[in-house]
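As the next step, I selected for study a record pairing a protein sequence with its C-alpha cells, which the following lines show:
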Amino acid sequence: MSEEFDVVVVGAGPAGENVAARVARGGLSVAVVEEGLAGGECSYWACIPSKALLRPVELTAEVGRVPGLTAGPVDTAAVLARRDELVAHLDDTGQVKWIEDLPARFVRGRGRLRGSGLVEVTAPGGAVLPLRARHAVVLATGSRPVIPPVPGLAEAAPWTSREATEARAVPGRLAVLGGGVVGCEMAQALHGLGAGETTLLVRGASPLGRMEPFAGELVAASLAAGGVTVRTGARVTRVERSAPGGAVTVHLAEGRPVEADELLVATGRRAATADLGLDTVGLSGTGPLEVDDGMRVLGAGGGRLYAVGDVNGRNLLTHMGKYQARVCGDVIVARARGGRDDLPAMRAAADGYGAPQVVFTDPQACAVGRTEEAARAAGFEVRAVEYDLGAVAGASLLAEGYRGRAKFVVDERRRVLLGATFVGQGVAELLHAATVAVTAEVTLERLWHAVPSFPTVGEVWLRLLEEYGL
C-alpha cells in the first residue's frame, strides 16, 4: 500500500528543504525523500566547508595588510577540525529533525518516478515504499561534478569538490583543473593550508571567464602573489597516476607537464537526472529539466512535476535554488487551494540576470546582472563606468595598498543598472545593494540620493555615479 501526501519532494538539499518548508507552511502534507545526507551538497561538501577552509586563509592575508599587526601561521589541523564541526561531522541527525519538525515525513532512500504523482522509494536495505502525491512531485536532486573525457583522467582517481572540501590532510603538491569558482577558491584555500606547490590550470585567458575581465585578472594576480602558479591557455591532453596513491602527471598541449600528489577537477557540474524514472512521465532523462517560471517541468505528463535547484539548470547557486524553492512552494499551495497563481515578470528577472554570485577568494569577486559584453550582445544601449576601489577613503582603513575595482553597466535609455561587479577585500557585502538596484531597476537619479556612509568602501557607489556624470 502506498502512502499519500499532498506533495512529495525528492532531494533534501537546500532547495528541497525550502520547498517542503513552504508547502508545510501553506497547510499541505509533505514527504521528503533523500538517498544521502539531509542538507545536501551545500551543507557538507560545498558552500559551508569551502568557506570554512577559506576564511582563515583570507583573514591571515587581511591581517598582513594592516600595519602594526603580524599574522601567525595557519593552524591547519585546527582549521580542519572547525570544518568538521560546521559540517556536523557528516551527521544529518539535526537536519532530519528540522525536516520532521516542519512537519514533514522524512524517507531515507532512492526516489524514482513511476508515473504522474507517483514516487517509488528504495530504502538502503532494499525495501520499496510507494508514495503518491495528490498535487505535486518536486525534483530537487541537484547536480554532479563533470569529469572531462581526457585520456587517463578518470583512471587517475582525481578529486572533485567533495574530496577537496572533506580532505583529511592537505597534499604537498596540488594541481587544479578549471579556472571557475571552485577552482579558484580551492586552489587558494588548500595552498594557504599547506599545499606548497599549487598549480591552477585555466583553459581560457584568465580565471573567472564569465565575469568582467578585470575580476579574473585581479584574482589571478593575487593567487600568483600568494605562491600559486597560474597557467592560462592550458589544454590537458592526458593524465596518468604512477600507482594507486602515487603521483599524478598532467600532460598539456603546450609547456611542461605538471606533477602533483593530487589533482582536483573543477570543470563544472551537470544536472542529476539519471535514474529518476523520467521516462514514466514522457521525458528523456538527459540534461537539465526545463521549467516555467513557476518551476513546473515542461512536457511532463500529468502536469504535476516540478524541479528546483541545480537539476533545472537555471542557476547552479544555492541561494537561487532556495529562491526557486520558495516560488515553487507558493505556486503549489496556490494551485492546491484553487487560488490564483500570478507569475510576475520579476521571477524571471530574479532567477535570470538578477542572480548574484560571490567568489570567496582573496580578493573577493562578486557580480550581479549582465556584464558589459553580455549587455551589448543583448542589444542594450550601454555605457560602462569603472572606479579604483583603492582610491575610496574607506579602503585605506581596511588595508595598506588596498587593490580592487568596481564597475557599473548602465542602460542609457532607461538610466538603470544592468549589472555591477566588485573585486576587492570584503566586497561581498556590497553586492546585495547592487542586487536590489538591478532587480528593482532603480533609476540612477534615485540611487544618487541613497547616500553611502563615510568612511566605508561602500562610498564607491557615489564615486561610480559621479563617474557617470551625476
The chain has three domains: 3-45+87-144+270-349, 154-267, 363-468.
